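Q: I'm writing up a methods section and want to include an example of the input and output format. Could you take the sequence below and give the corresponding predicted structure tokens, formatted cleanly so I can copy it straight into the document?
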Amino acid sequence: MMTPEEALAIYRAGAETVVRVLLEMDARIHALERQVQDLTVRLDASEQRVRHLEELLAKDSHNSSKPPSSDGLHKPKPKSLRSPSGRPTGGQPGHSGQTLRMVEKPDHTVSHPVNQCKGCGSSLTEQQPDRVERRQVFDLPEPELEVTEHQAEIKTCACGCVNRAAFPPEVTAPVQYGLRVKSVAVYLKEYQLLPFERLAEIMRDLFACDTFSEGTLANFSASCSERLEPIDAFIRAQVSAAAVAGFDETGMRATGSLHWLHTVSTRWLTWYFAHDKRGREAMDAAGVLPDFKGRAVHDFWDPYLKYDCGHAFCNAHLLRELVFLWEEQGQEWAKTMIDHLLAIKTAVGTARQNGQSALTAEDLDGFHARYIQIVDIGYEQNPAPKPPQGPKRRGRRKQSKGRNLLDRFRDHPDGILAFMRDFAVPFDNNLSERDLRMMKLRQKISGTFRSFDALVDFCRIRGYVSTARKNGLNALDALRRVFLGKPFMPAVNTE
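A: Here is the clean output for your methods example:
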């Protein structure tokens, strides 16, 4: 800082000295201003990064799309968005339950006689019982392999012609496993998700047979998949023609590299498709979305929006994003929108229970108007970002998470509220997500697939079994039908 004496000395030195000193001071001021501007920009960037990291730390499975497995040891306290039903926990009145009950015709009956009176010691052997007290024990028979030998006669006619009897179509080798063994192995491998090593151990322990190798068990799955190829094509054709179908995808590792498993789900059908890509290329290769004319339910991932079909968005995803804005940023509009979406869901559920096929025009207009009002309020709470300081940058100006979400609500009301206008459209995409959940569990249990073909086999078998179960079939019975040559064929259904 300049002292008064220094300033007076510069003044006395003449005009040239004064001008030179003023110019030097002006240059230093401008340099300091540029430095301050640069530091301000860096500080803003640091603050944004801190906010971003804080948001990441605040996100868990209840307020984002992160899976519960990522919550770690300190899992968040469950916070259901549903209001209490007021009903007690457990089975409700009228529920049949799953209690073990006596059967009228047991497989075996064991009599326990009374031969002697415990009072006087008299013999009761010849006396008929007054009544019988019954107790039944439900148990498994001793598991063992049953060997059936097929003998085909060979007879030579007087004319010299040698005649051989035909073996059953399923008996193709001198020694082989039967369809029940194959179906049990495939059931445990592909449905109950056991790895090959454990499966071989279980089969050896259960049936006291040491001939079950991992290669043999893999051949069972490959054979089942091959037999299901036409059924898989049929299911694909059916989901392609559906009026409403859910779409989702998840990563799966095969041969040590990341692949993607895509699913298309309806109430009655499940179809899986494996590809080494996740986005548009894989979806085109799957062949469902390019010609799909129904309404696709998904999580708003951009590649889905590229297809010319109806769209419905998973409101469960939107609710989690709204929960984050409400709990972590205190945005009131987010809480209001949560309540509004759940109110519409309740109204739809009540109308459906009352036998209605649609909401009234008055209700539809009222719900939509309130939706628009909440979005407008949200924009007031999330103003547009200020122009950045410093040199202009190319690209879209970065917005807050709240404003990005508001843009989605503003631009896509038809997809978000589709469940309100069409009762066939679900509120969320839980159906597809449930169909993917077990697929991810398989990877956690058994690890990576040994080959891409094994992943394809898994998709084909799981799609068939999932479809069979949606139609009320037992999974093991459905697999037995495959090896019997009479697989389950789902009915044509465009729901």
